[in-house]
Design brief:
The chain is α/β, with parallel strands linked by helices. The chain is 26% helix and 26% strand. The longest helix is centred in the first third of the chain and has 19 residues.
Amino acid sequence: MSSPSPRRETLEQLRRQLRGTRAAAPDNVVGTPTGLATLDRLLPGGGIPGASVIEWISELPGQSAASLALRSAAPLLQRPGCLAVIDEHREFHPAAITTHGIPLSRLLLVRIPAEVSSSSPLRLPKSAAGLSEHSQALWALEQTARCRGVKVILTWLNRCTSAVVRRLQLAVEASGCVLMLMRPAQALQQPSFADLRLHVTSSAADNRFRRIRIQLLRARHSLQSVGTAELLQDSSEQFHDG
């Protein structure tokens, strides 16, 4: 009996992989509504999916994307668990979360010290010692993503490899938390393993409001992988359905 041809073996392997992918994908991913009807209609499942990685990409390092991420995270924090902010550049203002209805008592703020002296009470584990600040921030991010006491993580990630994002995805799948990555426009040139990839742009609507446009670029577990939504943001950082 002749052995199968290489082409036949390759086709059969692809069929097995496709069947495995279909089995792994949930039939109906239900998200937690953000409370913004326009945004919820855009998101597959009607809200933020649990145990997921979400990329919020913005052209400029403004606050609209971060504010929208915090606003979207607030309903998730109605359940037990904290909001962890990995603040590599030490620029996050904790009071910003209260604007979106998140109490400071639910915040875990993680900052990487610029220097750790020999007399400092801070001791990094051997696995993180000797790493650059950025590498330490990535290490802290991955460890936090594995913590079951954390409900949502917010961090700014200018550069990372696909392998890093994949490890983070596996971490949140194990812990159940939602990881929100604030990323620059350059990330659009990179492949994504995120469950959702959202592109946020803003423009002046009038003297009182800015118009926020959210474009859905990727949805991992949905046939709906494109679409747009528009919101209005006032001077107090609050969002309104347009």
